[in-house]
Write a structure and sequence with these properties.
six-stranded antiparallel barrel; mainly beta; 6 strands; 1 helix
C-alpha cells in the first residue's frame, strides 16, 4: 500500500503511543499495523519506523484528517509540526 500523510498535528500519549493526524493521500483503505514509513521534515528523510495502525475516530474530521499511530520513539512536538513541513511516506 502506497500513501503519503501530510502531518497536521502529533500527540504523545502516556501509554507510549505517538499519534499522527493529517491528510492521507493515495489510499482510502485502513492502514494496518506494521506498515513501514519514512518521516520527512522539510523534504529531508529523518527516520524510518513501523506504524501501529490507524485509529478510527467515532466522527469524521471536517478536514478529512486521519490518525496513524506508532509505539516507536519519534522526536516531534505539536509546535514543531505546525512550523515545519512534516510528512510520512510509506516504504
Amino acid at each position: 500500500m502506497n500513501f503519503e500523510m501530510k502531518i497536521a498535528d502529533v500527540f504523545i500519549l502516556s501509554s507510549g503511543y505517538t499519534i499522527f493526524v493529517g491528510e492521507v493521500i493515495g489510499t482510502h483503505d485502513l492502514i494496518k499495523s506494521g506498515q513501514k514509513v519514512n518521516l520527512f521534515i522539510d523534504g529531508l528523510s529523518r527516520q524510518c519506523f513501523e506504524t501501529h495502525g490507524e485509529w478510527k475516530a467515532n466522527t469524521n474530521s471536517p478536514q478529512g484528517y486521519r490518525s496513524l499511530s506508532t509505539l516507536e520513539s519519534v522526536d516531534l512536538t505539536s509546535e514543531f509540526v505546525k512550523n515545519h513541513r512534516c510528512t510520512l511516506i510509506s516504504v
